[in-house]
Amino acid sequence: xxxxxxMTVTLALGLYACGESGDAPLVAEEILRLNSEANQVVIGxxxxxxxxxxxxxHVEADTAFFLEDQALVELRVMKxxxxxxxxxxxxxxxxxxxxxxxxxxxxxxxxxxxVRNPVEGRRIETSILYxxxxxxxxxxxxxxxxxxxxxxxxxxxxxxxxxxMDQADLTSARLVRPVTETQIEQ
Length: 186
Fold this sequence. Notes:
Elements: H1 2-18, H2 29-34, E1 40-51, E2 54-67, E3 72-83, E4 89-101, E5 107-117, E6 122-132, E7 137-140, E8 144-147, E9 153-156, E10 158-162, E11 168-171, E12 174-177, H3 181-185
Antiparallel strand pairs: 1-2, 2-3, 3-4, 4-5, 5-6, 6-7, 6-8, 7-10, 8-9, 9-12, 10-11
């Protein structure tokens, strides 16, 4: 009998706690400080972008803030893996933050941006990077450093490439560190 009373009281308290108070639920203050305009906040985003059933990109982020009125997602500590038409990895982008437009698939990555082409071993570092999905174009209008697989380092004032990074064009390019004889022999 005591168990029945305990269960009844517990159920009654639970139902009372679920009752409507008329007040909107509060969002944790920590989240509001990060982005007070977000309609949704996702911790641990893991999202695939497809085109005609083929995986084209994999977007991962520590935190994602959805701004529904603007059709934007603000990402923190992000990684985007790009794939070619047969599903092979072509490049990997990482940055501290970025903005993804879900209507167009376009993106801006900011702060400590690194793009790597694992096939060719090329790496590009910049402070901001733009991605135009329809044109399959990535570019930056900020200082850029390109490190080739053989260790060659080239710096420029801007760059442009496709998402596969199989060919990158640097503006005002200058050779910073050429390949050494030792590197050629390896």
